[in-house]
Amino acid sequence: MGDVVKRAYKYRFYPSPEQAEQLNRTFGCVRLVYNRALEARTRAWVVDRQRTTYVQTSAWLTEWKRADGLAFLNEVSSVPLQQTLRHLQAAFAGFWDKRSRYPRFKAKRKSRASAEYTRSAFRWRDNQLTLAKMDTPLTIIWSRPLPEGAQPSTVTVSRDAAGRWFVSLLVEDPTVQPLPAMDTAVGVDAGITSLVTLSTGEKIANPKHERADRRKLARAQRELSRKAKDSTNRVKAQLKVARIHARIANRRRDHLHKLTTRLVRENQTVVIEDLNVRTMLRNHRLARAISDAAWSDLRRMLEYKAAWYRRTVVAVDRWYPSSKTCSACGRLDTSMSLSIRSWACGGCGVIHDRDVNAARNILAAGLAER
Question: Which positions are annotated as active-site residues?
């Protein structure tokens, strides 16, 4: 019997003009409440050195709704507004625990337009979803079925920069079956030329999705730069650029899902490097290629899929010299530039492919840490 896990199923939907207007108004109110609460909490800390809790921000929200200038907050469901205050509380908790940076304000044109509804703010009946403040259900494209008898506990509605609408249903999924235990383990060395190199010697090519559409994207961005600000043509050009970015992201995500699923299914233990991607992106010569490789997404997918299927993901220390250590005799070569792709060990004479050697060392280091 499989474990019951919480799993989000994301679908595209097409709102009516009235629904789109209501949702856009909700997105704006969610952003406003988040920013006002962040400003108030920051002021309370800077001026009075007081930490503010979610309960206090919830009381502020009640006062804001009574103010003349913010009476429009009553026109949308109160649940997404309360949920954004909970998200802000979680952001502060991460900051206090030194797991994340200080929360930042949400910009209208840069932040994700989304709203989260809990069970009290939507009706789920006969596979039809009706949100609070709406009279008709959403027109959802059911690209894949929900688990039988699933009842959503949370619904998140979002709109991306390309103008597409999505709804994400969080349900308890009892269909995730643990995979049979295996004795196999693999080391994974992330790269740019090859997306990953395995300790078995296999290299997975990097599709370079962004590079494939780079000329088309550059042309669309040049057209956008020539449009007058606040004009209808500029809005159309922005959508064109956003759609190209969305296509690139979709292809990249699809490839990573297939790769990570394969690694988890074929191996009991997957050993990776604990890469500091944020710092690596400061290298402006490699930042574009590193972003396109999406190493952080690769690790995130490996970790949650391993948890689903009772596999193990081990991350070795980022300072471990996996590329410079001979996987045959253990000799360390301290001077090796990034341009060297193959080398001969000065101790045992074995000729190494740099990436394969690194993957084998990563595997050995990860198994030693277990």
Answer: 189, 273, 355
